[in-house]
Design goal:
The protein has 15 helices and 22 strands. By secondary structure, the protein is α/β, with parallel strands linked by helices. About 50% of the residues are buried. Strands 1, 2, 3, 4, 5, 6 and 16 form a 7-stranded mixed β-sheet that branches. The chain starts with a strand and ends in a 7-residue tail after the last strand. The longest helix is centred in the first third of the chain and has 16 residues. About 30% of the residues lie in helices and about 25% in strands.
Amino acid sequence: MRYDLVVIGGGAAGLSAARTARRRNASVAIVSAGPLGGDCTFYGCVPSKTLIESTNHGLNFSAAMDRVRAVVERISHGEDAAVLRGEGIDVIQDVAHFQNGATLAVGGSELAYGSVVIATGSEPLVPPVAGIGHVPVLTNETVFALRQRPVSLLVIGGGPVGVELGQAFARLGTKTTIVETAARVLSHEEPEASAVVEASLRVDGVDVRTGRQVKSLSGTAGSISAALDDGSSIVIEQVLVAAGRKAVTAALDLGQAGVRLDQRGYISTDAHLRTSVKGIYAAGDVTGRALLTHAADEMGRVAANNALSRVAWRKFRQDAIPAVTYTSPEVARVGLTEDQAAAVPGARVAELPLEELDRAITAGRTDGYIKLIASPRFATGNLAGGRLIGATVVAERAGEMIAVPVLAMRSGMLPARLALTVQAYPTWALGVRQAAAQLFVETGGRRARPTRRAAAS
């Protein structure tokens, strides 16, 4: 059988691409070597956020992990092979690889297609630490299978995964140490956000060591010694590697098809998610564009629509894709940070400390802030606030609050409309309104200011 579209990979991007094709009445097959749902459902967003919520509700380790498994099972049932086949999508659970730029082989047979969307995702990157191959370590793909709570845990990496799981395990009673090579945790976020999260981690008893590197690991399961580059060492029961991701492409034989990779090993794509080969698209983590489930979902739609259209006109807009780190407090961002926006002529910043937000005061969680960044519009300048180009929110409900700035950026909304939209009192979202008002009037003694470069970190 010849398919209009073949999707390789059954994660968020692959499922989105396949379902988009069916909505266009195209014939589609999804080829997946792993379980449908991918990393997010089984090893990422779903189990990690369930674990975090479980700690917020005071569950012990055993009960929390039971809840993780139950939630994963429940959500995975909504995207299994039976469900997809019921939607008219053929599911082939096997390994796919290219024989050339026009032929795809699956399980020893050739598969004919009009177009292909590669959505094979990413996997944990294991850093080149001496002895790491001889010492048992955990990654996000194995940590949720633990049956007993580790007495002590070393987390290598202070990015979103490292700080989320580090804080969760600390709250479950594990003595936790996070080692991050950068000068601060969450080094891609604003320095102020990093400082708030690091302080929160320390309150929860996490030993945070930034500007440090694990040089070697030795020992056996239950008693592992980690040597750091400052000459210190720690002995822990378990090690969790959260040092980044890499694209899953090895089994595809992309060289046979002529599909090019970038310098990082991700599939090179243009704004329309086209690869270097006509008719072959890529979506999700494998592109390296935004390693986020909701970004993958959006890319799947863009790629499938372009693959099935006479003209590939749809573009993936990364500037309006939010990112959330689910620590306590949460860190949510969309668009530019203030340091990045400092290069934009005329960019201004409206900032509201949570100490000035009544909902934060009532909750007793004033550790955070709301920051909106705007630039002048062509012709109208800063009239009605200009144009929103970035936002960062650090708060208990930051992941929900960021939705308002995302909508404004996606739709080109005037910041004045944010300030004129009546929000319920007292809510967290009211803080976005209060901050937006600063972009065109003085309010509460605050007015938008010019951007400032962050100090070197």
